[in-house]
């Protein structure tokens, strides 16, 4: 699985878009990008995943660069409840997820 | 209630004791997983199961035993607990498919070994 690199922490103002970057320069052609988040003391929660195309669901948008070496998770209107650790994971079908250190997002009023 | 549940939510035990953590899911997902999360760190996979009676080791299996006699249950046993096994344990389930690995996590069991 590709090694992913994320900033350790980020701040975002409530109501603004939160843009969380992830570098995965060694990602393979059939390797997916998955995003999970973990709110304090809770189990991780699946957010979104993608392969090549940008993806959007009710929680977030995922923008993957054309060369697939990086991606950005976008929370369009961050709320205080979005304060969490966000994990970017490179995933091969059939393998297991490997959670790294993630980005600690602090949404501030 | 539908979903994935873990019990107990909190457990304090002594070194050398056997402890079993329970995990139950109501979705009939094929795959189930056990992770541990040490304070301030990411999750590490202990064991996983692809179906009833099929289990496999993850990244940190030593000191743990699992079984899966029924699809919905996946208990994790610490045969002789050690202080290094003090951690938060998360169970998860999933229906793995082509590119699909959306895992649904339980609330966690906070285990302290004294």
Sum up the structure in keywords.
A: 109 residues; mainly beta; five-stranded mixed beta sheet; four-stranded antiparallel beta sheet; 0% helix; B: 114 residues; seven-stranded mixed beta sheet; 49% strand
Quaternary structure state of the chains depicted: heterodimer
Strand content of chain A: over 45%
Distance between the termini of chain B: 33 Å
**Number of helical stretches of at least 4 residues of chain A:** 0
Order of helices and strands of chain A: EEEEEEEEE
Q: How big a fraction of the residues of chain B is strand?
A: over 45%
Shape of chain A: globular
What is the structural class of chain B?
A: mainly beta
Q: What's the story with the biggest beta sheet of chain A?
A: 5 strands, mixed
Task: Specify the helix fraction band of chain B.
Answer: under 10%
Q: What does the average pLDDT of chain A come to?
A: 92
Question: Number of DSSP strands of chain A?
Answer: 9
- Rg of chain A from C-alpha positions? 13 Å
- SSE string of chain B: EEEEEEEEEEE
Which chain pair shows the most residues in contact?
A: A-B, 22 and 25 residues
| CA-based gyration radius of chain B | 13 Å
Indicate the low-confidence ranges of chain B by residue numbers.
Answer: none
Put the structure in a nutshell.
The complex is a heterodimer of chains A (109) and B (114). With 109 residues, chain A is mainly beta.
Record the SSE blueprint.
The complex is a heterodimer of chains A (109) and B (114).
Chain A: E1 9-13, E2 18-23, E3 31-38, E4 45-50, E5 55-56, E6 61-64, E7 70-75, E8 84-92, E9 103-108
Parallel strand pairs in A: 1-9
Antiparallel strand pairs in A: 2-7, 3-4, 3-8, 5-6, 6-7, 8-9
Chain B: E1 4-7, E2 10-13, E3 19-25, E4 31-37, E5 43-51, E6 54-57, E7 64-66, E8 76-78, E9 87-94, E10 104-105, E11 109-113
